[in-house]
Fold:
Amino acid sequence: MPSAPRASTSVIVAGIFAILTGALVTLFSVATLILSSSARFARSSPFPAFMLPVLIFFWIFLLLCGLFLSAVGIQVIRLRNWARISLLVIAGLMLFFGVMGIVVIFVTVFISAPADRRVSRGLLAAILAFIYGIPTAISVWWLILFTRRSVVAQFHDFAALQPPRAPSTMSVFNNPECPLAVRIIGWYLGSFIVVIPFIPFLPSSIPAMYFGKVFFGPAALGVYVFNFALISIPGLGLLLLKRWSYPLTIASQLLACSNAMYTMSSPSYEANVRAVFEKMNLPNFLSNTDQMLHYSRYFNLIGLLVPMAVVVTLLVSRRKFYQAADRAAQASLPTTPTPSK
Structure:
């Protein structure tokens, strides 16, 4: 009987690094939750009172992400293929937000006027670039490592030696018949469904901007529910190999791009953002508001990279996805019993 393959040193190191990173994120989130829940923090906080529940929700979400990352690191060492895919998704998100953060930092530091002239621009840029550069470097490392053929083969060899098991919820959403690129997109988009149950608990002062219009109260919550549902439901459909999910995913991503482009190009963009700050009682929340409003248009353009990348990836994987969807549809058809003679 052949022995089960073991993870290589590079995979073990990456898994341990994921475990430690998740543990640090978890500890930091717990410490911040304890601090933000104290009465002293509520009295001295620079944020309005209605923002505290939002911040607490954010740190709880970050806490869950840290726990998930540690669990993924453990399963990567155990050569579970779903963990490899999960780490690829996490690495892609880290790369996007890291690069976007670095771009925003350098534009803000070197183009706009500094908030505190006593701080050197070069020193501030170096510190912030280091903070954002670490997750960017880690994400590039994981993306390169876990897409190498020799590393992928380790996970596939381990899966091939496992005895057949009854399909589980995890296997349904990690169907090997689905192209890997589509599975990554499906996991990314489908994960937004966990946000929907928390939307009704958002403060009514949280606004929503949709095609140049600003919504508050129940209308804003409805916009958020609609957007997250329109993103997550097609993502789950991609994982389930449903043909309808392919055009719906492309349509939802193009709608998101159209919304962002229309909102940013609207002549009332800056007036709408100012109205949002005033409604939220944040007229002085940002220093150099005029400059930030001007550059925020360009910062938002960076956010279009994700939906455009999703559309391009789906177009490239179109044939493979439809072939897999057709096979899944044929397999789900009831078999007609052969009449006995």
In short: Residues 169-329 form one domain. DSSP finds 14 helices and two strands in the chain. The CA atoms of residues 264 and 297 lie 6 Å apart. The chain has a mean pLDDT of 79.
